[in-house]
Amino acid sequence: MINQLLHLYPNSIFAEEPTSDPNFLWYKNKDADEYIGILKTDLTQQEMKLLETLFPLDSLKNPDSLSPYIENWRDFLLFDGNIPNVPDVNCRFIHFYISNKKEAFQFEEWEEALKGLFPNEISIVPFNNSEGIIIELQTEMQMDEDELISAVEAFESDFFFKVHFHIGRFHSPNSKLKQQFTLEQSLFKLSLAKQPEERISNIEKLIPLFVYENLSLDTRHALFTEVSHIFSDDVEFFETIKRYIENQSNANLTAKQLFMHRNSLQYRIDKFIEKSGIDIKSFHGAFFVYLACLHIENE
């Protein structure tokens, strides 16, 4: 059966775990304990329904067991369905990706724990056995990032997996909502690929990386080679400046995190400014040097 699928869909790929690529649908090959990913663009709606019958859609839940409301969201976001009927209030998507799951992992148990975490009612739309979104309506009380960080620690301790979240921005439920979803999925995918140690991401955190990734190789080298030479092989110097920028020029916090005397930190900051001619205490200088740091890490 799997060989026949590969023949019918030559763009398919195999993986031990479903990836976070939103362009693929993942089906589990139980005989080989692996997954086959098929491009959504290679499948018609009728073929999708047939494959879901033959193979559990790496089921967080069998699609037949989804409520009509959740299934409408799934069809809208992943396929060509119409936007669901929703209250006339802004909503946001909190994207999630689960990895390192144990065989005994039960999505339903995690779903209940997740719902109990939020101050208001939420909707959870599963895409496959590893990823999906939480739909949260905008009210006076919202889940904040600190609460979500605490939840990550609790989830990973209780359920023995790794989970990543991307917190989207609130949007009106209009015709542009799917475009916003697609952009957020792209940013989340970028975070998973380039910053896998980050458990929580958002657009503000990812914009520098997004900007850097969209520069050509020649442009990157032309812009950042000089800064790279300043750091040369001094990893500690590099880490100090990068952390200082990430801490929004907060010298006390940076010195504390690096177990460094504040005067020593200030010496390194002044040394970098003198060598580069770039004032990293200013927004524009800090942004430029942070892009240079991303370039150095990417080399």
From TrEMBL:
<protein>
    <submittedName>
        <fullName>Transcriptional regulator</fullName>
    </submittedName>
</protein>
<dbReference type="InterPro" id="IPR025736">
    <property type="entry name" value="PucR_C-HTH_dom"/>
</dbReference>
<dbReference type="InterPro" id="IPR042070">
    <property type="entry name" value="PucR_C-HTH_sf"/>
</dbReference>
<dbReference type="InterPro" id="IPR051448">
    <property type="entry name" value="CdaR-like_regulators"/>
</dbReference>
<feature type="domain" description="PucR C-terminal helix-turn-helix">
    <location>
        <begin position="239"/>
        <end position="294"/>
    </location>
</feature>
<dbReference type="Pfam" id="PF13556">
    <property type="entry name" value="HTH_30"/>
</dbReference>
